[in-house]
């Protein structure tokens, strides 16, 4: 085995982890998993595209004797660090299993529409036009699966995906993204968890349109994953775990609740504040310190604050009104 190409993380079925590099807030890596059982193989997530990541993927599949075109490819969600390399690397006709929500949201037409809505949402939350454009650039996702080139098969809650004698069950796990899916093998207690739970960081939550409560969906997903009897947990980032998720779920919920209270505290402290002001104050930052953040850092802070506000509104703890004079939303605690 070429040093560092892959690591075996489970024996039956054989499961190998390939770490693929990407760059966002900082340089990191995401996990691609290769499952081998009998003459069949399954690839879970393909990572972000770069020449280095492509070479690592090709090197690992070649050395493991995996025929990518004959393999099933499962995408936990359509974030770039999990799915961007798929259209660059997979041969025409490759079978790709993914959520219909995620695939359809990444068409060029839908991406343009959603990016324009996102830009307007940022303006309505108090961002300047220049900042809103920068946040829109940060929000751009580049994973697009052309259904005319690949055999795309939509999967949903309860669907089965087999590889050799292993039968995985699809679990809908919205929260981190609306389209997030996990794969669970109940007989062996194996979970491919994507970014629904992470040990390396607290997963972000993508905001949903209208008054939909993404925070509540995320917590419901965590509680559901907590209940699974697990022996092998394989996530989108970091190493494998061989224990149930209860302790980590508790830690994530505690951090999310702490953030929620900080947002509520910010709105109480500055009644009728904008979303951007709430985001800044929830981090206890002066305006100068806020402006010193990179656009990507402010973008993530804005998203987290928006999701928190949506949840607090659903709980009846915050009221949001639209200011016709300034064309922004104003928030006050109830």
From TrEMBL:
All residue ranges annotated as the Metallo-beta-lactamase domain in the record: 29-237
Record's signal peptide: none
Superkingdom per UniProt: Bacteria
Pfam family, one: Lactamase_B
Name of the protein in its database record: Metallo-beta-lactamase domain-containing protein
Protein source organism: Slackia equolifaciens
């Amino acid at each position: 085995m070429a040093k560092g190409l892959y690591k075996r993380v489970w024996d039956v079925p054989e499961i190998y982890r390939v770490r693929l590099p990407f760059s966002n807030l900082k340089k990191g890596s995401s996990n691609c998993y290769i499952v081998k059982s009998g003459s069949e193989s399954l690839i879970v997530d393909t990572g972000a595209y770069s020449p280095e990541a492509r070479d690592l993927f090709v090197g690992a599949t070649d050395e493991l004797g995996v025929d990518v075109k004959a393999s099933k490819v499962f995408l936990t969600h359509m974030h770039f660090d999990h799915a961007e390399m798929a259209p660059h690397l997979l041969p025409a006709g490759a079978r790709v299993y993914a959520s219909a929500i995620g695939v359809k949201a990444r068409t060029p037409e839908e991406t343009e529409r959603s990016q324009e809505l996102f830009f307007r949402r940022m303006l309505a939350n108090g961002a300047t036009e220049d900042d809103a454009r920068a946040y829109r650039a940060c929000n751009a996702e580049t994973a697009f699966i052309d259904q005319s080139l690949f055999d795309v098969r939509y999967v949903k809650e309860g669907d089965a995906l087999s590889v050799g004698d292993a039968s995985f069950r699809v679990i809908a796990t919205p929260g981190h993204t609306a389209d997030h899916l996990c794969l669970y093998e109940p007989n062996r207690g194996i979970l491919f968890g994507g970014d629904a739970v992470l040990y390396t960081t607290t997963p972000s939550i993508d905001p949903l349109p209208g008054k939909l409560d993404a925070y509540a969906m995320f917590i419901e997903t965590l509680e559901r994953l907590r209940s699974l009897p697990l022996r092998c947990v394989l996530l989108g980032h970091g190493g494998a775990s061989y224990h149930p998720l209860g302790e980590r779920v508790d830690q994530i919920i505690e951090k999310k609740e702490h953030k929620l209270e900080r947002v509520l505290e910010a709105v109480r402290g500055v009644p009728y504040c904008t979303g951007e002001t709430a985001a800044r104050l929830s981090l206890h930052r002066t305006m100068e310190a806020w402006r010193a953040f990179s656009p990507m850092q402010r973008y993530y802070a804005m998203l987290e604050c928006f999701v928190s506000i949506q949840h607090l509104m659903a709980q009846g703890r915050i009221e949001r009104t639209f200011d016709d004079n300034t064309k922004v939303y104003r928030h006050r605690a109830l």
